[in-house]
Design goal:
Layout (H helix, E strand, L loop, with lengths): L1 H20 L4 E5 L3 E7 L6 E7 L2
Antiparallel strand pairs: 1-2, 2-3
Length: 55
């Protein structure tokens, strides 16, 4: 039962991250190895940043 609860908790967390990625993101910068995005919340005005970087 504990393993099931951990699995459900993990899936719920992943779903939250996936839903966050479906919001409107704008490019800040882009290079051959890095992309930087920004999202400004319409509700509370909070700002989120997302960076993808190739190693």
């Amino acid at each position: 039962m504990t393993a099931l609860l951990v699995c459900i908790s993990t899936l719920y967390s992943m779903l939250g991250m996936i839903l966050k990625l479906t919001e409107d993101w704008n490019f800040i910068s882009q290079s051959s190895s890095k992309i930087e995005l920004i999202h400004v919340s319409g509700g509370n005005g909070g700002t989120d940043y997302l960076t993808f970087e190739k190693s």
